Fold:
Amino acid sequence: MPKAEETILEIDLKALKHNFEFVKSKLKSDTKFLAVVKAFAYGSDAVEIAKYLESLGVDYFAVAYTDEGVALREAGIQTPILVLHPQPKNFKTLIKRRLEPSIYSLRVMENFIAIAKENKQKDYPIHLKFNTGLNRLGLNETEINSVSTQLILAESIKVESLFSHLAASEDENERAFTLNQIKQFKTIAKKMSNILGYEPVLHQSNTSGIFNYPDAHFNMVRSGIALYGFGNDAKFNRSLKPIATLKTIISQIHTLKKGDSLGYNRAFIATNLTKTATLPIGHADGISRQYGNKKGFVFINGKKAHIIGNVCMDMIMVDITNISCQEGDEVIVFGPHHTAENLASSIHSISYELLTNTSQRIKRVFYR
Structure:
């Protein structure tokens, strides 16, 4: 790949294909694959990622909000799209774009049935989400009778899937909790299937669930972070390839004498002769202020350069005292070898946050 001449986010579609195939290798041949492409496909580009995954034969997509699904439809995506957190205000748009809602409460169910009926729908696909312990979104097992009463009266909708979400599938210390979640979901699925007279698609496993609980794959799994190169565990990370590389360049080099200050609020004071590089990337691009003052770092010519002073809106400054480099040289913020996970851990964060914070003003460049 050519050297960067500005701040860019490179997306390696070959790595995406590798990750997709690796996750698929953990599934039975008839298990469906739902790809999570919410939040601009974890900070990359939802349209380009979805187009490529569609060409690879993915079965379903998931987004968080209706507008995200609309953007995919406008780009020509035909694969079914599950909207995980829809709001009743957007139900007419959702139906118009043939997006499929997660029904996570009785209120949402009542609203959607009314809108579907008003729009003369029949057997419109919906997905019932049940809470099994995450306590974030979802119908409770105690509400099954109320759900079934509404379903019996509604010809406008049809249950496409039943699903739930694991709270700590990456944490071996919470194995008992996770197994209890799986057990509870099986109970709910059996009750609902008896009521419906058929078994819908069942899915509960996220990325860590796929890797750690193969008996809970049911007939569909949902993978998000693994597609982008992270498995929430070192042993899985080794088999995955981060698809995104955030690059920038050195705009200017300064030499600070002992006692000189750098940046806003004079947050850095040189204790000896210090060489610094200013880079065109800042907290408006997703490098939060928490990375400042030697917590975060970048790589220049293979060497680690710590961020010094406060992170600015459009710039950061790094210590290059012991690094041979010049203005215009390429800088790696994160990538396959210096990962987003490693950088995020420097402020006790996670790869998800760093990736999804990557600003949309940064140019995306795609490689196959």
User: Anything to note?
Assistant: Residues 13-227 form a domain with the TIM Barrel fold (CATH 3.20.20.10). DSSP finds twelve helices and 19 strands in the chain. The chain has two domains: 13-227, 244-367.
